[in-house]
Specification:
The chain has 77 residues and is of the alpha+beta class. It contains 2 helices and 4 strands. The longest helix is centred in the middle third of the chain and has 12 residues. It is globular and about 35 Å long.
């Protein structure tokens, strides 16, 4: 019998400029396309985006994805 180890990484980012569900969807779509990302939850009301990935993501990759969606990565929450 082998035990599986949960090696997922959860990181919460602050994204400025999101105001509605469409904004949340745009950010979610771009971040979901990054290799290793398994889950994204964007909340416009708080500006927080929670990303679950197989391994830690490079900040520049996250910033590029958020920029592509039309918003600004303000850092980690």
């Amino acid at each position: 019998m082998t035990a599986e180890t949960d090696t997922r990484t959860t990181t919460v980012y602050r994204v400025t400029g999101m105001t509605c569900g469409h904004c949340e969807g745009a950010v979610t779509t771009e971040l979901s396309a990054l290799p290793g990302v398994t889950s994204v939850k964007a909340v416009a009301a708080t500006g927080e985006v929670t990303v679950v990935s197989a391994a830690p993501l490079a900040d520049e990759d996250v910033r590029a994805a958020v920029d592509e969606a039309g918003y600004e990565l303000a850092g980690r929450a």
